[in-house]
């Protein structure tokens, strides 16, 4: 049975960074955002984190052979149809209830086949899927033969909102494309809905560990050790040698899809991105702060700017 650490939360919450650091631990294979594998990789043949086109990456070729007898055998139209039918935020109340429609199990099976094959090909005990989508996590809850553990990554909603206003290119599409942008009001609503959905998942008995982005960057060594323990791994001091004082050394990975940071190799600074504190206009900050106030408080985020910087 594959053991999967699913990184959940609204985009721009630091999940890619968490995934990259987890991927440096022995016994862990980071897969990227598997939710996008069907279209962006199988159909569009975008780049793997290792820099190769998906079709030219030997890791993913071996996974596809083992899971489906080759990626060409995956009925992507069928995956999309199932996805549209079951994996929607509006379906979460139904997914969180009693027995869901059979399509949920059928949809989840596409993922478990990828996970099982990735575990066998990599020889790793733990796979990381940074798909983020709360509806997908609720679908995977119904998968048979899957050891699903969810890391719920939260970041201050005002930082998330600011990040969603910025333009980010997608290098995997050779810069022909940009990542989606949202207005602060829209991202505030999404932030609340997605985070509430992960709270619901925990109440349904799925192991969920909450991780604050800001705390992760304040003490990455401790945070990673705790995440590894949650994943059932024991981390020793030499396993964390890639972590330095305020930086980390990244080796190439095989993330199938996700934030452009998945291509970064070498030394990166581990520094909290607090640009929003000065760059998010006061009216927008107030709007996001008001919409998200109950959950910001629940997660321990002070609502005033000064104390937030100290959080
Ligand atoms: Zn690769």
Please characterize this protein's 3D structure.
- The chain is an alpha/beta fold.
- Residues 307-311 have low confidence and may be disordered.
- A five-stranded parallel beta sheet has the order 2-3-1-4-5, with helices on both faces.
- Helix 9 packs parallel to helix 13.
- The radius of gyration is 19 Å and the shape is globular.
- The chain has helices at residues 15-23, 37-43, 58-68, 76-86, 92-95, 102-122, 134-140, 157-165, 184-203, 213-218, 220-230, 276-279, 282-291, 293-298, 305-310, and strands spanning 2-8, 28-32, 126-132, 146-154, 208-212, 247-250, 266-269.
- The protein has 15 helices and seven strands.
- Bound molecules: zinc ion.
- Zinc ion binds at residues 48, 50, 52, 57, 59-60, 254.
Attribute tags:
five-stranded parallel β-sheet, two-stranded antiparallel ribbon, single chain, alpha/beta, 15 helices, 311 residues, 46% helix, binds zinc ion, 7 strands, 13% strand
Bound molecules: zinc ion
Biggest sheet, spatial arrangement of strands:
2-3-1-4-5
Q: List segments where confidence is low: pLDDT < 50 over at least 5 consecutive residues.
A: 307-311
Q: How many DSSP H or I helices?
A: 15
> Looking at the structure, what is the overall shape?
globular
Q: Give the N-terminus to C-terminus distance in angstroms.
A: 39 Å
- Fraction of residues in helix: 40-55%
Instruction: Provide the gyration radius in Å.
Output: 19 Å
Count every beta strand, where a strand is a DSSP E run of 2 or more residues.
7
What integer is the average pLDDT? 92
What structural class is derived from the secondary structure elements? alpha/beta
Strand content: 5-15%
Task: State the order of secondary-structure elements, H for helix, E for strand.
Answer: EHEHHHHHEHEHHEHHEEHHHH
The description of the largest β-sheet is:
5 strands, parallel
């Amino acid at each position: 049975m594959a053991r999967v650490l699913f990184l959940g939360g609204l985009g721009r919450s630091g999940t890619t960074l968490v995934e990259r650091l987890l991927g440096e631990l022995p016994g862990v294979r980071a897969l990227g955002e598997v939710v996008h594998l069907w279209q962006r990789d199988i159909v569009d043949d975008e780049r793997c984190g290792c820099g190769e086109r998906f079709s030219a990456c030997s890791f993913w070729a071996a996974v596809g052979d083992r899971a489906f007898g080759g990626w060409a055998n995956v009925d992507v139209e069928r995956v999309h149809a199932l996805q549209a039918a079951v994996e929607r935020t509006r379906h979460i109340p139904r997914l969180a209830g009693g027995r869901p429609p059979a399509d949920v199990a059928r949809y989840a099976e596409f993922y478990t086949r990828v996970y099982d094959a990735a575990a066998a090909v990599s020889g790793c005990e733990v796979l990381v899927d940074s798909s983020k989508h709360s509806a997908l996590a609720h679908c995977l809850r119904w998968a048979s033969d899957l050891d699903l553990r969810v890391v719920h990554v939260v970041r201050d909603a005002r930082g998330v909102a600011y990040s969603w206003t910025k333009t980010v290119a997608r290098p995997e599409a050779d810069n022909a494309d940009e990542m989606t942008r949202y207005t602060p009001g829209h991202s505030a609503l999404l932030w609340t809905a997605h985070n509430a959905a992960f709270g619901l998942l925990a109440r349904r008995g799925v192991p969920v560990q909450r991780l604050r982005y800001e705390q992760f960057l304040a003490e990455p060594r401790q945070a990673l050790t705790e995440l590894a323990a949650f994943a059932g791994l024991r981390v020793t001091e030499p396993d964390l040698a890639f972590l330095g004082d305020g930086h980390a050394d990244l080796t190439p990975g095989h993330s199938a899809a996700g934030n452009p940071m998945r291509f970064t190799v070498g030394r990166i600074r581990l520094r909290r991105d607090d640009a929003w504190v000065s760059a998010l206009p006061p009216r927008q900050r107030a709007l996001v702060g008001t919409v998200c106030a109950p959950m910001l408080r629940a997660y321990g985020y002070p609502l005033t700017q000064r104390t937030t910087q100290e959080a």
